[in-house]
Amino acid sequence: MSKEKTCKERILEHYESRNEAIKEMIVHSNGQFGEYVEEQVERFVEEFTKTYNEEPSEEEVDKFRQQCYDSSEYNELSLGEFPLGITSTKMVRIELSTGGPADFIKVYMDDNNFIENMTYHFQDWFDGAEMQVKESDPMWEFAEYIIEGCGA
Fold it and tell me: pTM above 0.70?
């Protein structure tokens, strides 16, 4: 029975994949896709030469170049159309202590300063943890008081 990887184990691979896609969208957006393809062609020629101890034929290079153009799922508009959505959240950090150990509250609010969520953070040397603050906890009421008082 194989165990699926956790998100922590998969995040770097996903991050790199997203970065590569975004890079391609940026070069399309900047009108530099042709230059990007030529960089890919140069890499292809180098790898081919290393692998087969000879340069690829013009036909093989042209075929690879065309595959680069054909395989791109992006265009000049892709960068602006890529986000699924955009959410803006205001976060206020209330620092309770700064070291040996440190703790603080992060308060997340909507555009109307309504508190949507709150987390308590505890950090000691090279370690840290966070947990949700319940609306019924005194810490929630404390944070509301502080935020109202500072006009955040």
Answer: no
Contacts of 146 (CB under 8 A, 6+ apart): 94
Taking CA atoms, 129 is separated from 50, 96, 132, 135, 137, in Å, by 49, 15, 11, 19, 18
Under a CB-based contact definition with an 8 Å cutoff, are residues 118 and 108 in contact? yes
* pLDDT 10s digits, 90-143: 999 999 998 779 999 999 998 888 999 999 999 998 889 999 999 999 999 999
Work out the number of other CB atoms within 10 angstroms of the CB of residue 29.
16
What is the CA angle 105-110-114, rounded to 5?
75
